[in-house]
Write a structure and sequence with these properties.
Radius of gyration: 13 Å
Strand order of the largest sheet: 1-7-6-5-4-3-2
Number of strands: 7
Shape: globular
Number of helices: 2
Structural class: alpha+beta
Length: 111
């Protein structure tokens, strides 16, 4: 079983987004955080819900403060003790999902 820590996923998201030329912002809350980048009206965000221990990668092409129905999940994983566990190589699925989300953010991407 492969184990990836949430903090490492946040770092990987930040590094990939910055390498693609996006400014990355991070907001921390008592029971979670949101790390995100935006381009025009599109936004890609990595949400850590520490209360329910879920990690979500979501994209929206609407208003930056879109309601929950305005977000499309590209990746999600239940976490245990701040790490997501998955027998199907979660780090590969996670990184591929981040790269796909960043591609959607580029000018001219299908929206």
């Amino acid at each position: 079983m492969n184990i990836v820590r949430v903090a490492e996923a946040i770092r990987q998201f930040r590094d990939l987004a910055m390498a693609a030329g996006f400014e990355v912002l991070h907001e921390s809350f008592p029971l979670g955080s949101v790390t995100y980048c935006a381009e025009a009206e599109a936004q890609l965000r990595l949400v850590w819900d520490g209360k329910d221990e879920y990690l979500y990668l979501q994209v929206s092409h609407g208003v930056l403060k879109a309601p929950p129905s305005g977000w499309l999940d590209l990746f999600s994983s239940k976490c245990i003790g701040g790490a997501f566990r998955d027998p199907e190589l979660p780090e590969v699925r996670f990184l591929a999902s981040v790269e796909y989300g960043l591609d959607l953010m580029l000018p001219g991407a299908a929206r």
